[in-house]
Amino acid sequence: MGSGSTGRAAQVSLVDHRPQELLALTVAGVGVRYGAGLGPAGDFSRLRLTIDSVQADDQMFGSRRAARARPVPA
Q1: In a domain, 2, yes or no
Q2: Which of 20, 1, 12 is nearest to 63 (CA)?
Q3: Count of structural domains within the chain
Q4: Average pLDDT for 36-55
Q5: What pLDDT shows up at residue 17?
Q6: Range of the domain at 60
Q7: Edge-to-edge strand list for the sheet holding 67-69
Q8: Does residue 55 lie within any of the structural domains?
Q9: Which pLDDT tens digit goes with each residue over 2-43?
Q10: Terminal C-alpha separation, the chain
């Protein structure tokens, strides 16, 4: 999905009461870094979250546009 993708992806689906899938949200290239230590100002901790791309797809039957939101190449 992206040139910097780490290969990690997650997909979440929104489902109605029938059950019918309405929307699929895919997040790719997820990275998490955590660091803690002692610095000049005292203890510190840092959390860094990076995401390469996010895409929302309309799963409704007969939808005119399947991709509702997607990454655009820079």
Answers
A1: no
A2: 20
A3: 1
A4: 89
A5: 92
A6: 9-69
A7: 9-15, 21-28, 53-58, 67-69
A8: yes
A9: 344 456 788 999 999 998 888 899 998 888 999 999 888 889
A10: 13
